[in-house]
Amino acid sequence: MDFPKKHEQQQHDAIGEALQELMCNEESSVKAYDGIVKAIDSWLNYHQTELKKWKELKLLVNGK
After folding, report:
1. Could you give the count of Cα atoms lying within 13 Å of 10 in the half-sphere of its Cβ?
2. Cα separation of 39 and 22, whole Å?
3. Does the model's pTM come out above 0.70?
4. How confident is the model at residue 64 (pLDDT cuts 50, 70, 90)?
């Protein structure tokens, strides 16, 4: 298996394992769903914060 396909398979496996953990550790699929939504929101917030920092740095570098 070439690297890109192997990496993609590893990603699928990791997501599958995380979903399995969510389903086993929660009393309902709705709570597992909520966990997925919270994880996505967390990543979005993180990246928005990082984007803000990079834009601020760019302004400083450009002397604005």
Report:
1. 7
2. 12
3. no
4. confident
Give per-residue pLDDT as tens, 17-39.
Answer: 998 988 888 788 888 889 899 99
Distance of CA 23 to the CA centre of its chain: 18
Q: How far apart (Å, rounded) are the C-alpha atoms in residues 2 and 9?
A: 11
Helices 29-61 and 3-25 pack at an angle, to 10 degrees, of 130
Return the domain boundaries, the chain. 3-61
Short-list 27, 50, 46, CA closest to 38:
46
